[in-house]
Amino acid sequence: MDDILLLDAAERYLRGEMNDEERAMFEDLRKNNAEVDQMVVEHHFFLDEMKRHSDVKNFKNSIHETHNALLNNGDIKIVPAGKARVIYLWNRYKRTIAVAASIAGVTALLFSGMVTVLTPKADKKMVEDLSRHLNILEKNQTHTSNELRDVKHKIEIPGEPAKFGGTGFLIDNKGLLVTNAHVIKKASRVTVQNRSGVELSTKVVFVDDNMDIAILKIDDSLFKPFPSLPYNIKKSSTDLAEPIYILGYPREEIVYGEGYLSAKTGYNGDTLTCQVSVAANPGNSGGPVLNKNGEVIGIVSTRQVATEGAVFAINAKNIFRAVDQLKKSDTSFQNIKLPATVQSKVPDRVQQVKKIQDCVFMVKGY
Prior knowledge:
The chain has helices spanning about 5-15, 20-30, 35-70, 80-95, 105-115, 125-155, 180-185, 315-330, 350-355; strands spanning about 165-170, 175-180, 190-195, 200-210, 215-220, 245-250, 255-265, 275, 290, 295-305, 310-315, 360-365. By secondary structure, the protein is of the alpha+beta class. A hairpin with a 5-residue loop joins strand 3 and strand 4. Mean pLDDT is about 80; it is low at about 80-90, about 105-110, about 115-120 and about 155-160.
């Protein structure tokens, strides 16, 4: 890619001017090309420095404008020139400053006098505005530092592509996820990636090949616990023909699909699973199956290639079985409580998905 076009793309990326498809392609390029990633980081610093320079310049202009306004309104007077100027300042500020012994001292004295003159009680609001401006600059600097920390975290993730992939979703607000056992079966290391593209390290805490369920624990300082999950996990069975929808990562962005429950049993009458009529691909494995109320009723498990549209899902009640087994094998998970009720039932599907999508992750096996 031409350097000028690449730089233009980096600036559009940092300013948030890319659409979702462009952003996904550019983030892939960053992950696979260390030089491009380094250029983005450096350009981020450059834009930040330019912004700080502009903010300082605007702050100085604001001080000059304030001084001129006070001068025109008669709130301040021009200090007499020459020796009289020094005597004037000394007589006015002798309680707080000492007599300057050099030209440098006189300069410092004049600056101190200017600051004092520009803060009369009548102009208190303007001073407060300037103070708020400085606080905003400090917050922006903190935000930039956090962004750079996230970028550094991404750079530290090994650059090799994942060997296996699927989907997982949270079953508690502190970072416990469920996915399919077959998604991570051959992986020596497993990570998850959130909707913003940040990759987080995990550890596998439970695997049951018979149920095809695995439980992961996000073990990364960048993960912040959720106040609560926007859905519950349903123990009871689902009615035939009930509308359902799925969320998953068959590609680099989250994908929505909808359908209905077509059979209460799975392949060859398997009672562990049920059959759903919905379009799904291998990357959907491990993703949630939800009903119209936003309740998790299953986990997307396998797709029968020979049967068009036949997708099978593990019944949600098996998530409870898996968690019970985890508690027995590891006492550190004794206090896990799966969400039993929907916190806020939203009938509108779009609003449901907006609340749920941040709890669904791409699972990567290396």
